């Protein structure tokens, strides 16, 4: 599967996953957008919901081609090897989670307190980046390797 096709497949799977499981929070209705203009108190709520959606979709698209890094960097063996496996996906998620925990500890040691909402945004980012890689693997699993990437 070519790079642009991965973006399309990731976007479609991200919309389907969001519609079914709502990983980026509650459903955002257009009436919520209207309340943005009619009720000044709704601004933080609408902004939070939109922020979650933006992080979810941008992260799933950001990693749409990441597993194909094995074509540029040959440390993972052959193409569609470790970086396209569930073990590689778990490895990637653990690296992200460990990096996030180290960064949170770094901030805490310097007296910088991070709100629980920001922590949840970080976890959503990690989940979305991992889901983006999973969507790539799903997209590759329905194509043959001889069609390019
Ligand atoms: Zn691939």
Shape: flat
Helix coverage percent of residues?
55-70%
**Which structural category do the helix and sheet elements fall into?**
mainly alpha
Number of helices: 5
Strand content: under 5%
What is the count of β-strands?
A: 0
- How many structurally independent domains? 1
What can be said about the biggest beta sheet?
none
* SSE succession: HHHHH
First-to-last CA distance? 5 Å
Bound heterogens, unique: zinc ion
Let me know the average pLDDT: 88
Rg estimate, integer Å? 18 Å
Low-confidence stretches: none
Give a brief outline of the structure.
With 149 residues, the protein is mainly α. 66% of the residues lie in helices and 0% in strands. The termini are close together.
Structure overview:
- The chain has 149 residues and is mainly alpha-helical.
- It has one domain.
- It is 66% helix and 0% strand.
- It is built from five helices and no strands.
- The protein starts with a helix and ends in an 8-residue tail after the last helix.
- The site of zinc ion (ZN) has 7 residues, from helix 5.
Core attributes:
mainly alpha; binds zinc ion; single chain; 149 residues
Draw up the topology in text.
Layout: H1 3-21, H2 30-38, H3 43-62, H4 86-109, H5 116-141
Bound molecules: zinc ion.
Zinc ion is lined by residues 67-68, 80, 84, 136, 140, 149.
């Amino acid at each position: 599967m070519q790079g642009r096709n991965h973006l399309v497949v990731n976007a479609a799977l991200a919309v389907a996953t969001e519609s079914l499981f709502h990983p980026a929070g509650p459903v955002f209705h257009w009436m919520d957008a209207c309340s943005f203009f009619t009720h000044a108190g709704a601004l933080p709520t609408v902004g939070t919901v939109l922020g979650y959606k933006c992080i979810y979709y941008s992260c799933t698209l950001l990693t749409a081609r990441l597993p194909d890094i094995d074509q540029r960097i040959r440390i993972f063996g052959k193409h569609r090897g470790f970086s396209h496996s569930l073990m590689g996906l778990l490895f990637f998620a653990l690296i992200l989670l460990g990096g996030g925990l180290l960064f949170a500890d770094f901030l805490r040691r310097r007296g910088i307190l991070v709100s629980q909402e920001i922590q949840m945004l970080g976890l959503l980012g990690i989940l979305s980046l991992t889901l983006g890689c999973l969507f790539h693997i799903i997209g590759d699993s329905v194509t043959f390797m001889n069609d390019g990437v």
